[in-house]
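Dear Dr. V.,

Thank you for agreeing to look over these. As mentioned in my earlier message, I'm a first-year student in the group and I'm still getting used to reading structure tokens, so any feedback on how I've presented them would be very welcome. I ran two proteins. I've put each sequence directly above its structure. The first is here:
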Amino acid sequence: MDLRIKDCNQQTEYWARAYKMGEPRRPRNVIATLNKLQKCPQIPKILATITGREPIPMNLIVTDCGELAKWGDISGKMTSADIQHYAYQLFIALDACHSQNIIHGTVNTSSLLIDETKKLLKLTEWDDTEEYEDGKVHWTIPNSLYFQSPELLFGVKQYDYGVDLWAAGCVIASTIFKVPYIFDGRTRNQQVSRIARVLGNEQLLEYAEEFQISISKRLRKRIRSFRERGFHTFKTENCEQVATEDAIDLVQKLLVYNHTKRIKAKEALKLPYFSEIQKENYLSTENTNKKCSTEQSIVELIEDASQPDKDSYPKFSNHGRIGSGATGSVYHVKGPENSHNFAVKTFESAERHNLWAELRFLKYLDGCPNTNRCLGYIMGETMRLQCLIFEFIPTHQWGDIFYDLAEEDIAIYVRQMLLALQGCHSRGIMHRDVKPSNMLFDHHRRKVYLTDWGHAAFYKEGAIYNTSVGTPRYCSPEVLLNYPKHTYAIDIWPIGCILASAIFRVRYIIDGITRESDLLLTVKLLGINSLRNFCKKYGIGSSGLSDCEELLDRQRTDWKKLITEANASVATDEAIDLLDKLLVFDPELRLTASEALKHPFLNKFQHSDA
């Protein structure tokens, strides 16, 4: 399964192949094969490996094949010079394989990727490579039917490098003659018939007899009816510029029944078709040994990948789940000897839109203080798992630390939360799901980072927003009352809830499990008049009051009545004053993030927040 990995900072894209955990031999074989071929510029370079475990059941091999086009997608616009250029590189790649006793097995118009800017071809799809040994029996025929050689079509198990050369001939022939496939049979027998129409029957039957290949009577009878037409019959006015005599000569030397008589890759490089190629331009590996240099980005995965020593690329492994939410989970991925650490957030494919939505906001938030920085993403076109890659922050759970926080700790954390909100609000973004579980608390360094932007939205004055956002216990009154004209104040309310939790030493200041119970508890704290005034001001009907009939005489709770011996040291007058200006029923009357940052409770400890 193929994926794209993109670095958010440099916008550099890489290609990765994912393997299920139940098939460990395949990634090991691919790694071993690519290591042997790393000096060839036309072979993908391994940039990193990532080893997973349940419930991320995959191994990833990351290579330098990002943002490349498939041969088949651009072949129609190739000039004669383009075809020569890329075909020459194809034979360089095949010669590198065959000189290492490697049969590629899946040369086709999808496994050949092209960087049109750099004019560079990469031979990909290494899952089914075989090591060639004389007389070795092969049990797989991995290539598409359109590119299978006669020996494969007849079920021969002892094949050799010739299967790659035949496939290369099919790729080149379809390109120079401007047809989707040079042989387009839908079954093996049809494909044999298509080949016999062009190459004739005599050599095919001689080949079958020489190598003791069994052909059914029906197919043999059909083959005998064909006479050799040759490849010139494909030449039309539409392709005469690219289907030159030298090009056809190359095809004729590749598409030969007898695999022992097909031209070798090294020999093909010397044919007249490539006489104008500046060969020295293709054999240098200078450009493959450059390092990437993006500081602290996903490129760190790969910055040592082009070193000439074997296995020099970093190898990463999944060290388990560190968080989860409605749309996915977060895992800790480590490099060798803990050299790199990443947090990888996964999305199910049904939530793919969440990845793109969150990624959009993360790009705007680059450089925003106290937000967890996104380094890149992994996107599979056909894979269930989609991922965002973040800096890894060693974290503590709010529930484990809030009860023991000193006044200074509380002020430092709240100040950093507000700095994050000030940053995102200044960029026009509402988070809309602020809560402790969407914050990363590095308690050893007294740092907090706001994360999870899956419910974020851009603010537009007077706009109508979905009210199904937020989390019980942290939802603002306007959300609880389904008031759709959200403002940045929607994020300020939960900061008040977190501050109250810390200074009063209670897990939740509003401990409801539904929106209705949250609203009742909010009215108990702020009084029925706050609700009445809100409904009147914002045009909310009596339905907003119906659930609160039992509280019709409820007055505002005095915060100081919540002070106990256990919390008196942190529930100071300054802390309560700030709380009183954050937990305000009317969003227009709440402090903004910028206003709250000027509060004396936060400023007196500002020197400690370095």
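The second protein is here, in the same arrangement:
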Amino acid sequence: MANPMFPERPDPTFPDPSPAHPPSPDQSPLPEPRGVPDYGPEEMPPSNEPLGIPGGAPPEIG
């Protein structure tokens, strides 16, 4: 890392930037949590349609 006072000269007292936990190549960075159902976009109802009501509102309101 460069010295903030002299950006053109690296400062030997500044530590090199390094990740705290480098990722291992055989491990995915974000594993799926256990017990969470895997919903695909085709399995979820549209946001404007409540569950079980195709029109989006109860019949007494519509």
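From my reading of the second output: The CA atoms of residues 48 and 54 lie 10 Å apart. The chain has a mean pLDDT of 61. Does that match how you would interpret it?

Kind regards,
E.
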